Amino acid sequence: MTTIRIGLVAATAAGRRHARTVADAWPHARLVEADTVGDALRAAFTGYDAVVAFLATGAVVRVLAPLLGDKRTDPAVVVVDEAARHAVALLGGHAGGANALAAEVGALLDARPVVTTATDAVDLPGLDTLGWPVEGAVAAVSRAILDGEPVRLAADATWPLPALPDTVRPDAPAAAYRLLITDRVVPTDARTAVLRPPSLVVGVGGSRGVPAAEVRALLERVLADAGLSPASVRALASADVKADEAGIRATADALGVPLVTHPAADLAAVDVPNPSEVVRAAVGTPSVAEAAALLGEPGRRATAELVAPKTASAMATVAVARHAPRGRLAIVGLGPGAADLRTPRAVAELRRAAVVVGLDQYVEQVRDLLRPGTRVLASGLGAEEERARAAVAEAAAGYAVALIGSGDAGVYAMASPALEYADDRIDVVGVPGVTAALAAAALLGAPLGHDHAYLSLSDLHTPWEVIERRVAAAAEGDFVALLYNPRSRARDWQLDAALRVFAKHRPPETPVGVVRNASRDGERVRLATLATFDAATVDMYSVVVVGSSRTRIVAGRMVTPRGYRWRD
């Protein structure tokens, strides 16, 4: 959900009803009232970050036309029709966030988002949607990408960007349009756009009471002398004792970047070219500006080089370090199979990735969601370890990677093998998914109303003796049990063995449910009891749910009471 301030404008009873739905769901959305609808619309446009107007598109255009200024500063405007069938991103599609807002409003009102921005329409990432400053001939280069013309890509390093089409490549003809990814000040022309990656950390030291104007002037001079763009500064860094220094903090605020600080002991451990014993005596470390610039943000380990050694003014000291990109690994759970059980966040991560790694059959489920130019690394069953290593290696090389698995990637899936190899040099994002067990439970009724345990019966990686002890513990503890990997052609006895253990602790009429292909083609749901269950009907596409001693069948549904009361 968006957190920007949203002004809602409506003229009719139906429009106000839809507006109330939005306002009830979003605390930052407010219905704007005025003497006339036009006045309300103008007030929302000038006083809010975004506008959702429950009006006719033509009326909104006529009222707002005199107020339009620049797409980089105008608020987003989304128009919703009287029946809430469509949410139209009218103004500020990229820069204002109207395209994303239309999707959010559409999801809330069950309306279809209408987005006409060219890059979105053909499923390409807009240069102004990547979250980085972009300069130069943005429109011309974007048009060239849309038209399939060759665009010469030149990057100082590999950054975790979304996939770009195959026409954007380093070996494009020299006369082609150019897309540069650099923190350096470079000449541009009518065929060149420049993306500014967040690569620079500015280390700042200063005497107590240093003016913000002095810090800012020194910072700008150091960057200019080094030929570096202020748009690539991602943080200011200093010593802990400077955390409350108003001039330094105001400079960070003015640049729109965080101020991070480090203990003197951590700064003292950094090897710098220009240490100072005077500084050591004052703050406990021989370097503040250079050491802080090289350390960067706490918890984000990356290779860094000093590109501008410390420079001092009367009361301030500034140094600049360039930090190597950190790759991004998104571990994505795709859900049990049905597209409508795939979370929006999972879809967003798939579309953000430049590399997708996964089991071949799972890749085919989502191939239509991948952007043009996405590199796919697919492999078959049994190659889980290789997929995990490949995903981490691609992220370590600086790419944006999505490692996909069914259900939730952390439940008997790819998250744990991948995170065994991923160190703190890459950013990791976990995207939860609907598990097969949850999908199966929903189809069976409410078997998980009380305590339950997940158990895998596969002894490929775990000795059966260990599995049997865990099954016995769940049975003795009277947990509802969800049995994964219950039976295959090569493993045809383990399920029967597990059910015999449960039968020692549960009455024979205990419900047992099995769901095959939950939410997918060929879905099948069956209910039985411990006494009547036939394990031969189960395969690796199934999840078996063994009830507790309190689980019952109610109107053909499997129900485990929460424990407050139960009526026989």
UniProtKB/TrEMBL annotation:
Pfam families: CbiG_C (PF01890), CbiG_N (PF11760), TP_methylase (PF00590)
Molecular-function GO term, any one: methyltransferase activity
Start and end residues of each CobE/GbiG C-terminal domain: 200-321
Keyword terms: Cobalamin biosynthesis, Hydrolase, Methyltransferase, S-adenosyl-L-methionine, Transferase
Annotated Tetrapyrrole methylase domain residues: 328-532
GO biological process: cobalamin biosynthetic process; methylation
Superkingdom classification of source: Bacteria
Pathway annotation: Cofactor biosynthesis; adenosylcobalamin biosynthesis
Full protein name: Cobalt-precorrin 5A hydrolase/precorrin-3B C17-methyltransferase
Source organism: Micromonospora olivasterospora
